[in-house]
Amino acid sequence: MSSEMVTVDEIPFPPQITVAKPLSLLGHGITDIEIHFLQIKFTAIGVYMEPDVVKHLQQWKAPVEKFIRVVVIKEIKGSQYGVQLESFVRDSLAAVDKYEEEEEEALEKVVDFFQSKYFKKDSIITYYFPATSAPAEIGFVSADEGKEEAKMKVENANVVEMIKKWYLGGTRGVSPSIISSIANTLSSNLSK
Amino acid sequence: MSSEMVTVDEIPFPPQITVAKPLSLLGHGITDIEIHFLQIKFTAIGVYMEPDVVKHLQQWKAPVEKFIRVVVIKEIKGSQYGVQLESFVRDSLAAVDKYEEEEEEALEKVVDFFQSKYFKKDSIITYYFPATSAPAEIGFVSADEGKEEAKMKVENANVVEMIKKWYLGGTRGVSPSIISSIANTLSSNLSK
Question: What is the ipTM score, two decimals?
Answer without folding.
Answer: 0.73
